Amino acid sequence: MKYLLILQADVEALDELTEADRVSVRTGHDEFRRITAEAGELISREALADPCTSTVVCRDGIRSGPFQGTSIGGYYLVDVESKARAIELADLLPDTRIDGLAVEIRPVMLSAGADY
Question: Using omega within 30 degrees of 0 as the cis cutoff, is the peptide bond preceding 66 cis?
Fold first, then answer.
């Protein structure tokens, strides 16, 4: 079953991270990637650009930006045996231990229906 682990962050919380916090986050993500790659569970991952560079397209083509507040900083796509394993992996990410950061776990839908 595939799950998207969506890295969410309050922009202000990111700005307030200490250098030690930043090192801890980078180290934690390196370890997460190592664990999931060795287990054959990591399909892909991407970090997204600063949300202040975003443009939001809405109904009737109305555009706004830059994006403010909480945004998606990146994601990991994993293929695991169960939702419980997806939660276990998300708990490994340092984002789950820092105020203002979070990991959303969302099952991936396939054209044939839900893959969960």
Answer: yes
Q: What is the pTM of this model?
A: 0.82
Task: Give the integer Cα–Cα distance in Å for 25 and 102.
Answer: 12
Predicted confidence at residue 70, as pLDDT, reads 66
**CA distance to 42, 74, 89, per residue, from 46 (Å):** 12, 5, 16
Rounded to 5 degrees, what are φ and ψ at 60?
65, 20
- In whole angstroms, give the CA distance from residue 110 to residue 45: 19
Q: Which residues of the chain have pLDDT under 50?
A: 111-112
How far is residue 70 from each of residues 8, 12, 56, 105, measured CA to CA in Å?
7, 9, 14, 16
